[in-house]
Amino acid sequence: MLTDQIISAKSMPTLPHKTVSLTVNEKHCTLEVLPWVSLLDALREDLDLTGTKKGCDHGQCGACTVICDGKRILSCLTLAVMKNGSEITTIEGVATGGELHPLQKAFIEHDAFQCGYCTPGQICSAIGMFQEGKALTRAEVKELMSGNLCRCGANTNIIDAIMEVKAQMSHE
Ligand code: FES
Ligand code: FES
């Protein structure tokens, strides 16, 4: 009988949650997550850090970029369990002491966002790119930021904002 075949939620086996310890924006946290949960979903849904955006959820748009152990990563393609013990910075953690990050200020000054949906990923990606130390020219910056898509036309302003902060850094 059909009713015999229906498995009630109570009789389902307990799903195998894993414990993951992360330091996110300098705060230590411990999560219980299913092994297939992405870091993006863990940040947004378990930690309520919704600044990191879910665009494509397939590694194609860069909206979900965060900084993990000093490197930019796509959090939609990263399982939370893979990052046990890591230090993560999201857009909520880039300002310091109540002061916006220089890139956040430059994005505002250059009108570098229209819908703003790609902005958190663009800023985290640019911070990671600066840390990589590879982008020397505007053309290289464009190439190394090409994984972060802006679909509404702010791209030139985004690159202008990044170049301005890069120039400030080279004078420090
Ligand atoms: S949401 Fe991760 S790359 Fe698009
Ligand atoms: S500002 Fe709209 S997608 Fe980037």
From TrEMBL:
Record keywords: 2Fe-2S, Iron, Iron-sulfur, Metal-binding, Oxidoreductase
MF GO annotations: 2 iron, 2 sulfur cluster binding; metal ion binding; oxidoreductase activity, acting on the aldehyde or oxo group of donors
PROSITE patterns the record matches: 2FE2S_FER_1, 2FE2S_FER_2
Superkingdom of the organism of origin: Bacteria
2Fe-2S ferredoxin-type domain: residues covered: 18-94
InterPro entries xref list: 2Fe-2S-bd, 2Fe-2S-bd_dom_sf, 2Fe-2S_ferredoxin-like_sf, 2Fe-2S_ferredoxin-type, 2Fe2S_fd_BS, Aldehyde_Oxdr_Iron-Sulfur, Beta-grasp_dom_sf
Full protein name: 2Fe-2S iron-sulfur cluster-binding protein
Organism: Dyadobacter pollutisoli
Classification lineage: Bacteria, Pseudomonadati, Bacteroidota, Cytophagia, Cytophagales
